Amino acid sequence: MTLSRIRELLEQLNISPSKALGQNFLVDENTARSIVDALEPQPNDCIVEVGPGLGSLTEHVVGRCRRVILVEFDARLAEYQRERWKDEPGVDVHQVDAAKWDPRFLFAERPSVKLLGNLPYSAGGAIMSNLMRHPHPFCRAVIMLQKELVERILAQPGKGDWGLFSLRIQIDWSCKFLRIVPPGVFYPRPTIDSAVMLLTPREEEEFPPFDRRLLDELARRGFACRRKQLHKQLPPSPPWAQVAERLNIPSTARAEELQLTQWVELTRTYDPNPLSELPQDGNEAFDVVDESDHVLRQASRDEVHAQGLMHRAVHILVFNRKGDCLLQKRSMLKDRLPGAWDSSAAGHLNAGEDYLPAAVRELEEELGLRAEPSQLELLAKLSASPDTGMEHVELYALHGCEGKVHFPAAEISAVLPLPAAVIDSWLERCPEDFAPSFRLCWQVVRSSEVDHH
User: Fold this and answer.
1) Contact 382, 393 (CB under 8 A)
2) Is residue 280 part of a domain?
3) What pLDDT, on the 0 to 100 scale, is given for residue 422?
């Protein structure tokens, strides 16, 4: 989109670019095309563009992918975009603050959801923090920001720009500088350079499991006073000498000196959860049962799974006060279905244990939630089959949950509350993202709701 066209549209729409909203419109076609090309649009993509403005980037996206979602704060520009693309199938416009926008429905657009944005200088960091924090649905992102903020994001430990925001982005994303964008390709012309970067999600196996909330807490404390030695900012236990030795750092180290791998190891060192290191015990005893769920004998976890023996498990679906269902993403260390999305909490019955006590126990062990047996509603019993992992399953529901969830990182990599309609759409589009046993459990829940109504 050219400068003359931008001016013409602004005049037609009676819009004066707002400095407060960071409205600097891209007026160079080659720059716009190169930014979009870096996103590598594909026909099956869902592309989310934040801050489309008058469509300098958008016009290079529409027609190249399955769906385009435009997120625009300015109501006048949002209305212009709606009118411009009203006859184009697959283009949706959301007039909302992207720093506060709820992007969870995008999980139903997987597996190829990409993020594009010429983000406003004043809110770029807040928008990235909202949309790109773990867990997120994106497989690729191309972002343009002020050059200073891009340099902060790309900074390396020990350098002046490295800080809390750098750590928060880099712990989940591999970041690559693409190009500087000078002020002269914008209208109105800003006073500083912009820069474009490419972000791709890190593979979950890149780091050992760690508690992201704990890492963020430790990092906030560590970077609160950058000049202070790290041990003076952190909890007194475990002893700092042991921590420093484990991380192979000097006792005088400051937060800005730690590499990503050391921040992960620091978090694992401070993690109080007893399951933070060993997610499964192969010698754990299970009841082996028959088709009618009668106990035959006991066997170890390893034997049960290796031989495909029938055994017992519980699944619990936790619903918050809004009615959203909490899904867990299984850790990459799990011996079965690593990385799959699953029921809120689930687990095997120990030898001699009944279903309901096991459900109460699993809720506390996996989510840190304490519930009375009377609070759990038995929804169904599923017979053992290959889809349940040869487990007889009792399915329970916990409604109106208000407790704070805390989960062991070695067992669960993320917990995400989602509306039922989003889960339905996600399951329909990408059933392979979910554990087969959860798919059965969710089918039972939704079928019972239909029958009830």
Assistant:
1) yes
2) no
3) 97
Of residues 25, 77, 79, 70, the one with CA closest to residue 48: 70
Cβ atoms 366, 348 nearer than 8 A: no
Specify whether the CB–CB gap between 367 and 405 falls below 8 A.
yes
146 pairs with which residues across the strands? 194
> Cα-Cα-Cα-Cα dihedral of 207, 213, 218, 222, to 10°?
90
Are 343 and 370 found together in one domain? Answer: yes
Of the candidates 193, 204, 240, the residue with the CA atom closest to the CA atom of residue 413 = 204
Same-domain check for residues 335 and 405: yes
Chosen domain end from 206, 227, 245: 206
Return the structure tokens found at 115: 């993020």
Ordered DSSP codes for 408-439: -TTTEEEEEEE-HHHHHHHHHH-GGGB-HHHH
Residue 415, C-beta contacts closer than 8 angstroms, at least 6 positions apart: 326, 327, 328, 329, 344, 367, 405, 407
Three-state SS at 70: strand
Nearest partner of 121 among 169, 30, 178, 183, judged by Cα: 183
Q: Which residues pair with 48 in a beta bridge?
A: 69, 115
Residue range 299-342, pLDDT digits in tens = 999 999 999 999 999 999 999 999 999 999 999 988 889 999 99
pLDDT at 143 over 80: yes
d(Cα 386, Cα 145) in Å, to the nearest integer?
A: 50
Q: What angle do CA 225, 227, 231 make, to 5 degrees?
A: 75
Bridge-based pairing of strands 285-289 and 325-330 is unpaired
Helix (H) or strand (E) holding 303: helix 301-307
Domain of 109, CATH number, reads 3.40.50.150
Handedness of CA 445, 448, 450, 453 (dihedral sign): negative
Question: What's the alpha-carbon Rg for the chain, to the nearest Å?
Answer: 25
What tens digit of pLDDT does each residue of 146-175 get? 999 999 999 999 887 899 999 999 999 999
Tokens of residue 375, six digits: 């609070």
Domain encompassing residue 336? 285-452
What does the alpha-carbon distance between residue 330 and residue 332 come to, in Å, rounded to a whole number?
A: 7
Task: Write the CATH number for 356.
Answer: 3.90.79.10
